[in-house]
Every structure is written in structure tokens, then in C-alpha cells.
Amino acid sequence: MLPVSNADTLRQLHQDQLSQYNNQEQQAIELMGVLNTLYNEQDVQVTLFGETLDTSSVGQILALHQKTATRNTSGQAVAIADTLAIVKTLAQSDVTAASVDVGQLIASGSDVQQALQGASANGATNDATDVVLYGFGRIGRILARLLLAQASSAKGLQLKAVVVRPAPAGDLAKRASLLERDSIHGGFTGSVSVDEANNGILINGRFVQVIYAKDPSEIDYTAYGIDNALVIDNTGIWKDEDGLGKHLQSKGVQKVLLTAPAGGDIKNVVYAVNSDTIGDDKIVSAASCTTNAITPTLKVLNDEYGIENGHVETIHSFTNDQNLIDNYHKSDRRGRSAVLNMVITSTGAAKAVGKALPELSGKLTGNAIRVPTPNVSLAILNLNLKTAPKDADALNHFLRDMANSSTWQSQIAYTDSTEAVSTDFVGTKHVGIVDAQATIVTDNHATVYIWYDNEVGYSTQVLRVAAQMAGISYTQIPA
User: Fold this and answer.
1) Catalytic hit among 102, 147, 283, 289
2) Which tens digit of pLDDT belongs to each residue from 198-236?
3) Prediction pTM value
4) Least buried of 257, 361, 469, 478, by fewest C-beta within 10 Å?
5) Residue 284 lies in a domain
């Protein structure tokens, strides 16, 4: 038993810690309110080293701040009080249409008022753009969750409808249930209800029309009050201009974004790598989840060390196009049970990298192994470099700097944990997470392991491309 004096000291310590935590909780609650006001009234988005601050979760805000010690140059975690002070300053300013990273502002020691001056003078606004999800499978529902999880706003991407194939009675309720309940990502944060009378779903108070059609040519979107829409095609049925061009023939559609690799002359875009090439294109592909996961890291490695050639091996979670038990399948091996086997298959990710990053065209080969896990995949980059890093530590140090930079923090993340496994990355919005513990360097050969949530991480990239296609842009603070 502790002496009375020591017990009193320990009790007082616990009380102080609890009081400090309660104070942080109150600051987080206040922060959530100001963030919602900023988003609704000024179209200002606030992040913490690239991570979105969830305005519905006190716990998430507290946890994000606790994790910032490894990102801050001082080695200290960013205090919620400091974030709150900056956000209040934003709310009192005339800044509009801006993306503000409070973590980078604090880490760089930037003067907040000075950083805001350019954005205040800009006076930019983002109009609303109608969005239609054509297909409502895994990616379609994740996109819907991401679009509707934020506080409602009259600006930016506005989900107006989903299109699915004709189905029997009861389909509407099933679609709503699948959105509300997810075996991998858990329950949807918010309310979901069916509007049978108008054939739609109410999601967080916003009405989303459900349209049944076999082909885009059957649909007149203007009949539903939808116009100049961006259609995000999640079906994978059409992958060329002739097929995807059907959407443009539908009344009320302006542009089309495909959530799969495209053929022909359609641009395969990885946001932040070659998204500057989109221009006025009416049809664009957001490439694949694997291409998005590996291309940012490949770009920074090529810029720093030069890549002679290499091989990409993807350990990929099974997908809906495989069979649960052995049965006929048009593709080799994919007919064998997805939940019982590792299945070697092809991947176009390595080739697709060359479309997004022409300097690597023809330099990479690739294969994939589908494994019995439902989500989160792992890409292994085996690269021969022109300039050899000193050792694995030097390469990891470089990749950590890239992950912490304002340029790449949303695309590249970094973990040094010896305990990290695939389920740790379920739901992460980072496109690819470098596993530093697995990095190998031998002379000029490097092996880099990259985790990625092939559903959520990819979907965040899709929405970034969608926003750019819609002409939505934000002044970056700090620049």
C-alpha cells in the first residue's frame, strides 16, 4: 500500500489529468461548432497535417491532435487551444473558398494574419455542382458516405442522384440499408431513411433521387431537377469514349468521371501527380486504387533518386468480381474461392503508372495476388534506382519528410510501428502509407511497402478529381 502522502499526490495527479482532458473536450466541442460555421458560411475547409477534422466526433479531434507530435517540427503535439485560436481568427476574417492546414501553419511558425491576407483579397467562391453516382456498389456507397458526411452546404459537390439497374420491389430499402450498415467500415455517421413516395433516400436530411435504368441513354436528369451534372461512373461497364460518351448524351450531364482505368485517349488521372492535365476534358478516369496508392510515392522516389526499372507486386484484398466458392468465372483463377485461396492474377497498375507518370512508362512490371481479406491492400515496390540511398534509414527519412510536407501529406503517409497490420488502415483517407519497418535497401536496389485502403483511400482521390473537373478550387493556406 502506498503511503498516504504518495497516494494523495497520485490522486491529485489523476484529478489534474482528468481536468486537463475535460478542458480539451470542451475546446474540441467549441472547435466543432466554429468549423461547421466556416464550412457553411465561408466555404473554408480546415485540416491538421492533411487530416480532416471530423465535426461530429470529439474523440477523433482529440486523437488527431495527440498524434501530431511526429508531424510537428518541434516534436510537440499541436494543442487544441492553438487550433481553436486559428480557427476563430479564420471565422472573423473575410477568407472564402480556402483550405487551411493549421498543423502546417503551426509547424512552420507562420504568422496567421499574414498567411490570410492573400486569401482575403482573393474573394473566390465555389458554385454548387450536381453529382450523380452511376452505380451504387462498394465505391459508389463509399463516395456517398464521404459526400454526405460533412455538414450541409450550398457550395461544392452536391450528391443529387444514384442510378442502379431496374430491380424488384423492396430494392430501395435494401439500397438504403447497405449505405447505413457496412460490414467493413461500420455504421454510417448520420441518419438514413427511405422516401418511397418520391423514390429516393434521405441522408442527413438531404434528398438523393434513386433512378432505375439499364442504359444512360434512358435518363433525362433535368426531369429530376438535375442539370450540368458530373456523372461518376462506378460500374466499370464502359471504359472507352464510345461507352462513357453515352452519359454525355443524357440530358442534364456535363462531364463524366470513371472510377476504373480507362482505355484509348481518355486521361488516367492520379490527383496531385498529373491532375494538372485535366483541362476541359469531358471524360476522365481516376485510374485504379493501386495506381493511386503507388504513383505519388513512385514520383517522389523518381524525382529524388531516379528509377531505372522495377516490379510492383500487389497483395490485394478480394473483390466482388471473384467467387465465394469455386465456380465458373471468365477470368483465369478468379473462379476459385476468394475466401479460401490466395489467387494470382494480373494487374494493370504498373502499366497505368506510365500514363499518369510518363517518365516511368515501360519501366515497371506488375502482378497481383488476391488474398482472403475484404479490404486494405499492400503494394510492394521493388525498384532499381539510379542513385543509391545510403541505407534504409536514409530512404525512410526522405519518405517521412515527403509524408510530412504540405505538398504530399494527403497522398503519402508514413508508419514506423512494429505492430502495424492491415486492419489498422481500414478507413484511412491517405492514399498510400509507407511501412518504414519493411523498407530494404541493398546497393541501388530498394524495396518499399505501401499499405492502402483500396476503398476509402481511393474514393478520396476520386472526389479530389471530381472537384477539379467541377471547377472547384481552394486557396491553400499556407501556400
Assistant:
1) 289
2) 999 999 999 999 999 999 989 999 999 999 999 999 998
3) 0.92
4) 361
5) no
